Amino acid sequence: MKFEKEKLLFKKSKNFARWYTDVILKAELADYAPVKGCMVFKPYGYAIWENIQEVLDRSIKEAGVKNAYFPLFIPEKFLEKEKEHVKGFSPELAIVTVGGGKKLRERLVIRPTSETIIYEMFARWIKSWRDLPFLINQWCNIVRWEMRPRLFLRTTEFLWQEGHTVHETHGDSLKEVARALNNYVEFYRNFFAIDGIYGKKSESEKFPGAKDTYTFEMLMPSGLALQGCTSHDLGQNFAKVFNIKFLGRDGKEKIPWQTSWGFTTRSIGAMIMVHGDDAGLVIPPKLAPIQIVIIPILQGKSDNKKLINKVKELKEILKDFKVETDFRKEYTVGWKFNEWELKGVPLRIELGQKEIKENRVTLVRRDNGEKYFIPTNSLKLRTGKILSDIQKSLFEKSKKYLKENTKKVFDYKEFKNIIMTDKGFIEAFWCGNPKCEAKIKLETKATTRVLPPETKTEKGKCVYCGKPAKNKWIFALAY
Ligand SMILES: [Zn+2]
Asked: How far is ligand 1, taken at its centre, from the CA of residue 22, in Å?
């Protein structure tokens, strides 16, 4: 039923959660799968992931990291080797007990992350300091059983890349942790046009088995935080249990230092939430599968030939961009406008008899509705400029929102009040005692999101217990 799409979306400002699901389904990014918690990427949604992969993969390779692929099944005993790791992941594991019609002697876990299977292999491959640094990435799917699924944000199966590196010294591995994090942060800012706060996770929020976890936290329009990526300093924890050793430059046997880092399809959820509006998606030009849609305004048959030729000419002029043309006759022009707005295409070109006569086009921006009348001969240049302006202004908007919704709080009453009302990021002193963190979580559902590196050591009082505290942490409710 084609008319379904014409039904109005839920308003983003009025019912954010309903709007989010609605826009994903109606813009045909994804659909629910028969298995609860799983989703299907439809071609338009998958095209965004392909764009993400292309950019990220290039930057990963530029850092000297090579792609490989490891199996989906992991022997359960591998996970049990690292105590924190198995404790952290066991509630969300999917386990295979039957294979080929027979009960398996050894149960197999479907990877919730691949540290254990990869490090089993690293132990076989790494022998000497000459093998280091050892830098591997894999693109794959991951399964973590999800009780409260939400499209893109929380699904039982999701797609990601996971980098795994091995180094001679802790200094070297820390550099890699920072490089990977920085790469993600820049990616979010430059391509997703989303600002956020990066830094270190608390002990209770870090990756199970890691020494430290670093991340980029973004603020969604609902006032809730979304963790955008992770970069882990694994220390020597996994190397010890998986028996990864190398012969050092001094001829002595040594234990290497490791990192792992990941970026998932969840990022698409962030893009949808941050930039979308009441009319649908707003996709940043750098991630858009279609950057420009040309809509010819078809009329009497005799004139249409001219129009069709003109569209061909425009497509040629704009060949450096991702252009789609919409010649469908079964829909009205107004319907088409709504459709491409819903799909978040950054620019629309309208072309009718009037435009042809005057040798110009009408160009409309998706992000703010601004109209331009551009002569054909300067179209290429102007289009490029307008697209980069859209990219820039989306980022500026996100930056402004982050700034306006990050509040310094010194008093627990005020803390609770903000969580109950506006939400957003709360910057507050915390003494570092896990008990205060746990009590805050229990009483408000807010968690420590990140300790930003810019935080200078200051003198303050813990927002919960009032005892001396050195650092301001970012707290928020989170997805
Ligand atoms: Zn405290």
From this structure: 42
